[in-house]
Design brief:
binds S-adenosyl-L-homocysteine; six-stranded parallel β-sheet; 11 strands; single chain; globular
C-alpha cells in the first residue's frame, strides 16, 4: 500500500486514540521513511503541545544486580553464573542521589533485580532516607514483582512512581520469554495493584523480542489503552551473550521509533523515555527517539565501578562516564534536537500530587 493512504489513520488515531486491529497492523508494518517522517512529525506536535521543548531527566541508580528470577532475555538472570553480583550500600545509594541532585536531577529511579536482601523494611528505610534528604524530588522504584501489601508500604514510605514493564501483553509470548514460575497474570496483577494504590505507573515492552509478532504488539497497545499508564518504557531487545536468547536477532531502532510515535498519538500526555537500549542499538537512537515523540531520558547515576556489572544486554552504552560527564554529553545531544533538559520532577500532567509520608 502506498503509505500516504495511511495518513488518514493517523488523523483517526489522533482524534479518537483508537484504531481497529487491522489499522494498527498497517501502521506497525509499514516501514516506509515517508510514514516514519509523518508519524514522528505528528508525535512531536503533540509532545510540544503538552510539554513544550522540555526533556525530563531521571537519575537511574542500578542498586543491585542480584535477582531471583531467570528471565530468558536478561543478563542478570539468576541462572547466569558468570554475572558478578553487587549490591550498593545505603550510603552509596544516598551518595548517588546527592550527586544527582547537585547535577539538577529531581527524579531518582531505584532499579534492580528482585533481590531478597531488600525486604520491605530495608526498602522503606531507604525510601524515607532519600525523601528526607531530597523532599522536592520524585522517587521511582523499579524492583519487579512484589505483593500488594509490600507495594503499599513502599508507597506510604514515600515512593511516588513505579516502573514495571509488562514485557509483552501476549500470554503465550510471555511464557516463551520467561520460566514457568513467572506468570503473565501476576505481572498484570502487580500493575493493576500499583495503579490502585496511587503510584504513577510505567509499563512497557521490548520491541523485536524473539517471537514477537504484530499481533503481540497490538495486544501491547490495547493494554496501554486499558491501563492508561503515566509512563511507557520501550526499547529494543538486545541479546546478552550468557542467556538462552544469546543467538537471537536484536530488535530494530526503526520499529522502536515507530512505536514511540504510535504511543504518543495513543496516549498524548504520556511520559515516554528514549531509552538506553535505543541508544545502544543506534548511536543516534536517543536523539531520534526525542524526534519521534519521546520526552524523557534516564541517564545512569550508578557508580562507574559497578556499571559494567548491571549488564542486562550486550554493548550497553555510557559505562565509563561519571554523572557529570554523562549529563554534559546528553545535554549536547538534546540541544541538537532543538529540545532542552530541564530541572524538574516532570510529573504526569494528570497527577494530582501526593501526601507526604
Ligand atoms: N527487575 C526489574 C527491573 C528489570 S530491568 C523488573 O522486573 O521490572 C528493566 C528492563 O530491562 C526490563 O523490564 C526489560 O524490559 C529490560 N531488559 C532486560 N533484558 C533486556 C535485553 N536483553 N534487551 C533489552 N532490554 C532488556
Amino acid at each position: 500500500m502506498e503509505c500516504q493512504k495511511l495518513f488518514p489513520l493517523l488523523d483517526k488515531l489522533e482524534q479518537t486514540q483508537d484504531l481497529t486491529d487491522e489499522e494498527f497492523s498497517l501502521l506497525i508494518e509499514d516501514h516506509s521513511a515517508e510514514l516514519g517522517k509523518e508519524i514522528s512529525r505528528r508525535a512531536r506536535i503533540l509532545r510540544e503541545k503538552y510539554y513544550g521543548k522540555d526533556v525530563y531527566i531521571r537519575g537511574l541508580i542500578e542498586f543491585t544486580n542480584y535477582c531471583r528470577n531467570n528471565c530468558y532475555y536478561c543478563g542478570i538472570r539468576c541462572g547466569n553464573a558468570r554475572a558478578q553480583r553487587y549490591r550498593l550500600t545505603r550510603e552509596e545509594i544516598l551518595a548517588c542521589c546527592d550527586t544527582g541532585y547537585e547535577l539538577g536531577f529531581r527524579t531518582f529511579v531505584l532499579q534492580g533485580g528482585e533481590d531478597a536482601y531488600f525486604t520491605d523494611d530495608r526498602l522503606t528505610e531507604l525510601i524515607r532516607a532519600i525523601k528526607k534528604s531530597h523532599p522536592d524530588c520524585a522517587l521511582t522504584l523499579s524492583v519487579g514483582e512484589r505483593e500488594q501489601d509490600s507495594y503499599e508500604k513502599l508507597f506510604e514510605a514515600g515512593a511516588d512512581r513505579y516502573l514495571l514493564r509488562h514485557e509483552t501483553a501476549d500470554k503465550a509470548h510471555y511464557e516463551s520469554l520467561h520460566p514457568p514460575e513467572l506468570s503473565h497474570e501476576h505481572r498484570l496483577k502487580c500493575l493493576h495493584a500499583l495503579k490502585t494504590i496511587g503510584y504513577q505507573v510505567g509499563c512497557g515492552m521490548m520491541t523485536g523480542s524473539p517471537g514477537q509478532t504484530t499481533a503481540c504488539l497490538i495486544k501491547d497497545l490495547r493494554l496501554l489503552q486499558e491501563l492508561q499508564p503515566e509512563m511507557v518504557g520501550i526499547g529494543p531487545f538486545i541479546p546478552h551473550h550468557d542467556t538462552p536468547l544469546a543467538g537471537c536477532q536484536p530488535g530494530t531502532a526503526g520499529l522502536t521509533l515507530r512505536l514511540l510515535s504510535i504511543i504518543r498519538l495513543l496516549l498524548p500526555q504520556v511520559l515516554l523515555p528514549a531509552t538506553t537500549a535505543l541508544g545502544t542499538i543506534d548511536p543516534g537512537g536517543r536523539e531520534k527517539g526525542l524526534m519521534a515523540g519521546a520526552n524523557v531520558l534516564m541517564p545512569n547515576l550508578s557508580p562507574v565501578t559497578v556499571r559494567r556489572q548491571y549488564a542486562l544486554y550486550d554493548n550497553k552504552i555510557c559505562l565509563g562516564e561519571e554523572g557529570a560527564e554523562c549529563l554534559r554529553c546528553l545535554s549536547k545531544r538534546v540541544s541538537s534536537t532543538g529540545y532542552r533538559i530541564v530541572k524538574d520532577r516532570g510529573d504526569h500532567p494528570g497527577f494530582k500530587g501526593k501526601e507526604g509520608p
